[in-house]
Amino acid sequence: MMSNQVFTIDGSMGEGGGQILRISLAISAVTGKPVRIYNIRAKRSKPGLRPQHLIAVKALAEISSAEVKGAEIGSTELVFKPGRIKGGSYRFDIGTAGSVSLVIQAILLPLLFAGEPSNVRLTGGTDVPMAPPIDYMRYVFKSNLRLLGASFDIVLHRRGHYPKGGGVVELTVDKPLQRLRPVKAVERGEILEIRGLSHAVRLPFHVASRQALAARKYLREKLGEAIPVSIELEHYKKEWDPHLGPGSGIVLWANCGKTILGSDSLGARGKPAERVGEEAASILFEDLSTGMAFDRHMSDMLPVFLAFTGGHSEIGGSRLTSHAETILKVLGILVGDDGFEYRVEGTPGAPFTLSVEGIEPPV
């Protein structure tokens, strides 16, 4: 259902980052509601659209047959008028080390409702600061979205670290939906096992090994020996390494029966491998200790999907972030009149519960 009313979003609300842009356009594509976003990234040192934001705009425009004004580097205002969502085969190259994971967050929602399968090949950063690593998307995000009935796959072909980028990822949506499924998952279940993936690209093997050993040591000290901890090492000899690098990182995830809680940490010049592993482990332990069903990152990502379940959902998150609060405000503006409602119990930075009344996707 297409709308003639243009909804206005202030891109400086909350922390004023690129997430407001991506989520607003994704919702616009699904609902058919035109949006005007102003003050785009107004609080950043370089306001306006950067290459990683522009590719998300272009990707969503192509997927939803949208008319767009203001889609250029540095633009602080954008008008987006969506048409019909269509699946199929797509190729998008960010051109920098901008996060592939953030583009997936933006395009997945409309592709789930495209009515036909989709295959998207993305080139950019897979393991970069201030964004979920691609392994988090593969092993945590994907698993938790299955609770809502979403069926898709994420395949990593080549890693791309900051600042080179050049990573290649393939997103496949094989079974588009009419709507997502409501979820009730407030408290996590018993921790069944903890798994992980520690990688080192064009670096010595011991980097990946030390990251994993430090993470395993921390978790066993905190959780005891009864919970299995298994961390896979990913490393290639230089002459066989398909990845660009150099770079390293670790992603951990805890299987709690119904839900998966995850954490991550990236290597950096001058940052010991042991600190990388301990950092990821300490974040995971902190989130597990809240007893809530979802980690801090999934708590950010889930609300926009819960909004399109056509039913009542309740979730528990380990930390109420400013990202989550901002996304809920955007949803209220764009689909509040359609019956979307939410209630948050908790304080910023602390564990919280979220109740959502989702709407039926109009596409």
Which features does this protein show?
363 residues; alpha/beta; Translation Initiation Factor IF3; UDP-n-acetylglucosamine1-carboxyvinyl-transferase, Chain; four-stranded mixed sheet; 31% helix; globular
| Residue windows where pLDDT falls under 50 for at least 5 positions | none
Q: What is the total number of structural domains?
A: 4
Gap between N and C termini, in Å?
Answer: 6 Å
- How many runs of DSSP E, i.e. beta strands? 16
Mean pLDDT: 94
List the strand order in the largest sheet.
1-2-4-3
H-E order: EHEHEEEHEHEEEEHEEEHHEHEE
> Which structural class do you get from the secondary structure elements?
alpha/beta
CATH superfamily of the largest domain: RNA 3'-terminal phosphate cyclase, insert domain
How does the overall form come out from the CA principal axes? globular
Q: Which range does the strand content fall in?
A: 25-35%
- From the 3D structure, determine the CATH topology of the largest domain: Dihydrodipicolinate Reductase, domain 2
- Rg over CA atoms, rounded to whole Å, is 20 Å
CATH architecture of the largest domain: 2-Layer Sandwich
Determine the oligomeric state from the structure. Answer: single chain
Helix proportion range? 25-40%
Q: Can you identify the CATH class of the largest domain?
A: Alpha Beta
- How many helices? 8
Largest sheet, in brief, is: 4 strands, mixed
